[in-house]
Design a protein that fits this description.
Layout: E1 4-8, E2 11-14, H1 15-152, H2 154-172, E3 178-180, E4 192-195, E5 202-206, H3 212-218, H4 223-248, E6 254-261, H5 265-274, H6 276-284, E7 287-290, H7 292-368
Parallel strand pairs: 5-6, 6-7
Antiparallel strand pairs: 1-2, 3-4, 4-5
Length: 392
């Protein structure tokens, strides 16, 4: 019995220990089986009690549901009676609301139709305006194309610049102050000459401008092309400035300066921005480069000078007329004095005539108031005349 029956690692189990462990396991198993049986019996008892309680609660709930169903049925009947009584009112109210809605809908549709008609009319008017604007745009496009054709032709471009310059001059000066295409003593024909007041010399305006170089300068894509175009601009402008200075700046016939008209504000700005040396060169040559706005400003200044000169001439005429008027007033004053003398003499004569007429009237009244003595008829002719009272 003390023999070793099992070895587990370092622990050895004897036969007695193994029997004791087996018996203990059997006891534990029996205890567990007893407890399991008691637990199952207790659970069956609890389940039976729970089933009974659930059945009782189910009966109570069924009774409560029956009661609620009865109340609900009565309430449904009451509501059916109320709905039946108010169905006619609801039908009448719905009919009234439908009639009102139909009326409002008809008015709204009518107003919407009017508004739509007005909107369509306005849309037609705007379409007409758009058609007119499109026509104007088409006309402007054709004009721009024609302007491009004009600018591409040198002669047509010169005529365009000449026409624009003439329009500015005509708008600002009287016809007696300017002339176009006049031949000077050196057989040159400037585009326009302006006569300034108080000076016999003419101011010359040249409307020819070399545009090809500027066109190439603006259309240049590379720096080399731009340099070549700038050189062409300087060459053309320098030659043109020299021609104007040689032809139109003549002593005792023209002013000591001349105007070069550039018909484009953009070209004038580019000229002052990128070709300042040409501007300085023109100033030294006494040639002033003007754009349309600067020419209009210069024309306004000349217009003021012409107006002042005309006012001075008119002032002289007015002074002459005023002197003549003073002579006439002086003669009129002398004649009025003579007339006043005649009037005073006539007044004295009338006063004396009134005095004489008053005396005659008084004498007549006295004669009318005389009393004659009664005398025989036969001696009436021999009686002496009655004696009158002495006149006062």
């Amino acid at each position: 019995m003390q023999g070793i029956v099992l070895t587990v690692g370092d622990y050895q189990v004897s036969a007695m220990q193994a029997a004791f462990g087996f018996g203990l396991a059997v006891v534990v198993l029996l205890v567990w089986m007893v407890l399991s049986l008691r637990r199952s019996s207790f659970e069956r008892t609890l389940e039976a009690a729970s089933a009974t309680e659930r059945a009782r609660e189910m009966d109570d709930k069924v009774a409560e549901m029956n009661r609620l169903q009865a109340e609900l049925t009565s309430r449904m009947q009451t509501m059916a009676e109320i709905f039946g009584s108010r169905q006619s009112d609801m039908t009448r109210l719905v009919a009234e609301r439908l009639d009102g809605l139909r009326s409002h809908l008809g008015q709204g549709l009518e107003a919407s139709g009017k508004s739509t008609t007005e909107s369509l009319q306005k849309l037609n008017e705007r379409l007409a305006v758009i058609d007119s604007a499109q026509k104007n745009l088409t006309d402007l496009t054709s004009e721009m194309v024609s302007l491009k054709v004009v600018l591409s032709n040198k002669q047509a471009r010169g005529a365009y610049g000449q026409g624009r310059m003439e329009a500015i001059v005509r708008d600002g000066l009287p016809a007696s102050a300017y002339d176009f295409q006049v031949t000077l003593s050196n057989r040159t024909r400037p585009d326009c000459v302006i006569s300034l007041p108080g000076d016999t010399r003419k101011l010359v305006i040249d409307a020819k401008f070399p545009l090809e170089g500027f066109t190439a300068y603006r259309s240049a894509d590379t720096e080399e092309q731009r340099k070549q175009a700038a050189a062409r601009v300087r060459a053309d402008m320098g030659s043109h400035i020299k021609d104007i200075a040689d032809k139109y700046v003549a002593a005792e016939e023209t002013q000591d300066m001349a105007l070069m008209f550039v018909p484009s504000e953009a070209i004038h700005a580019d000229l002052h921005e990128h070709f300042e040396d040409l501007v300085q060169r023109s100033h030294r040559a006494r040639v002033v480069i003007v754009s349309p706005s600067l020419l209009a400003l210069a024309i306004q200044v000349m217009q003021s000078l012409v107006r002042d000169a005309r006012m001075r001439d008119e002032a002289r005429v007015i002074q002459t007329e005023v002197a003549k008027l003073l002579d006439d007033v002086r003669r009129l004053s002398e004649r009025v004095e003579k007339l006043d003398t005649h009037f005073r003499q006539a007044s004295d004569d009338v006063s004396q005539i009134r005095t004489s007429s008053d005396k005659i009237l008084k004498r007549g009244e006295r004669i009318e108031a005389l009393e004659f003595e009664d005398q025989p008829v036969q001696g009436e002719l021999l009686a002496p005349p009655p004696r009158l009272r002495a006149a006062e």
